[in-house]
Amino acid sequence: MDKTSGTTEVPAAQATPIIPLPQAAARALTVAGSALALAGTFLAWTWTEEFPGNLTVTGYPGGLQVLTLFGSLLTLLFALTGYGIRGLGWLTPGGKNSPVLLAALGVFGTTGYAIGAIAQELGGLVNLEPGAWVSGIGALLAVIGALGLPVDQPYDAADPTPHLWGRIRHSLTAPDPGRAKDLPSWAEILIIAAGFGTGLYVFSYGIGTEYSEQFIGFLIVAAFGFTAVNRAGLLKRLSALTAKHRNVTLGAAFAAAICFPFTQSNDQFALIGANILIFATVALGLNVVVGLAGLLDLGYVAFLGVGAYAAALVSGSPASTLGVHFPFWAAVLTGAAASLIFGVVIGAPTLRLRGDYLAIVTLGFGEIFRITMNNLNGNSGPDVTNGSNGIPQIPDLEVFGFNLGVPHDVLGHELTRSANYYLLMLVFTAIVVTVFRRSAESRIGRAWVAIREDETAATAMGINGFRLKLLAFALGASLAGLAGTVQAHVSYSVTPEQYQFAGSVPPNSAFLLAAVILGGMGTISGPLIGAALLYLIPAKLQFMAEYQLLLFGIALMLLMRFRPEGLVADRRKQLEFHETGQLDLPEDKPLPDGATGVAKAGA
């Protein structure tokens, strides 16, 4: 009984495992199953090389076998921490058993998908070799054992007896890790570098997958593995270090990004990386408008198009009606300035609107831009953009005598055209990240957040809402135009159909807005991660092009249900979307016996 409030605190109910097994037997079964799944990867999974990845070799895993190997090894390490083995305790500073279950589910999903794909493509389970069965049975045993491990957290007192689905979801939760011991600065910097090095390896492996079956398996392992590492508390420990060493973190991130083209031998994969940076930079510019200022812009891709068309017209293309050839820096400034002007012209009469009305107006602007570019063909209007034919044959950029259109040898590695543009776009991304970071931390950035949370209250406190919203609109437009200048040269041509509200091929406004929401509004890394995922997945799964919009919508619904704050959320969004146990208003507690109250102020 709480004597001050007169209420009785209900103790949290002890959670029970999904499968009632003795703890020692469950852990032993998990370890044995993981080891069995790992051993099966060194055996042949099929007898023919018709299935991609050459799974016929014994003693040398390949293709989907490698994914099962890494997933099994991660599951095995997490499971062994439960035995208190010295040197492994740092792997699970948060949850102890939920990471084991998540990693085991990832192995089971990948192995099961591989078995199903082999049977479907080759004509039945008869085409499986013993290695596939060994890994499949081992993965199943590991999941059964992990379901028998104790749950990391007790049930909520408000729901002490949840149903089966609730119990399964609860078994995947974990407590936050405690505060880590202070380490020397050099050790913390090495940990940050190792974290970004691991991220570079995982991203390079995913973008370098050569066939769709391997990429789907990679997505399964990466999704469950990332969640398992997060539940183990490792990501939160790393986040604490990156917050402590912010400048070192930014340097390590860009150093890892610079190393990416040196890890790729296929020019196609470097081109995917360059396009990801282009769209991630545009998404970060939209994050200024949507994430900081709270303005819903559904026609943002038009500013990318303005920058691209402006650069194409002044870059010396034979199809350009202006017939001028600006140097690189002048073309970039022209594209950014043109988008800035359009942002001010469109924003000035429309930003007095709010909410859905502003969204409808910006959507109309995006469509007006596309139609106008179509009509400036010499028939329906002046001959400026060549109409639907666009502006082709845009020459490659030349930066300080360095022609980006031809390969160059750097440190014994040949940088292709796509790699050259990737590195150039990386410089622009660094500029945009710096602008976003400085803006968000400034007085103007705090005013944007105030307008986003409550414009009426912000105006009452003396903030000029219209002027600041126009500033956010103009800044976001200029950042999009900056990326558009590079996008025009990377794609060789610009056409009106590239800049739609929605479509199966990015860029489009819906894609950019979803990248911001998926990654996390108001953050730096969120839109970068969201844009990378939304561009990489369609590029790798081209056989699903007809269903991309359907899958896109399903993914957004699942995200809104289970992770409404985005993949990378700031503290404000986490408090807004999740229960913290903190009351919105203080409890109305009675005064203690003998205390006197005050009848009115000043008495």
Overall description:
One of its GO terms (cellular component) is plasma membrane. It is found in: Cell membrane. Keywords: Cell membrane, Membrane, Transmembrane, Transmembrane helix. This protein is mostly helical and 603 residues long. The chain has helices spanning 23-40, 64-80, 98-122, 130-147, 164-171, 185-207, 212-231, 234-244, 246-259, 267-292, 301-314, 328-350, 355-375, 417-440, 443-453, 455-460, 465-490, 509-519, 525-540, 548-562, 571-577, and strands at residues 398-399, 402-403, 408-410, 413-415. The chain has 21 helices and 4 strands. The strands form 2 sheets. A two-stranded antiparallel sheet has the order 1-2. Strands 3-4 form a two-stranded antiparallel sheet. Helix 10 packs across helix 18 (509-519). Residues 1-10 and 595-603 have low confidence and may be disordered.
Descriptive key words:
603 residues; mainly alpha; two-stranded antiparallel ribbon; 2% strand; globular
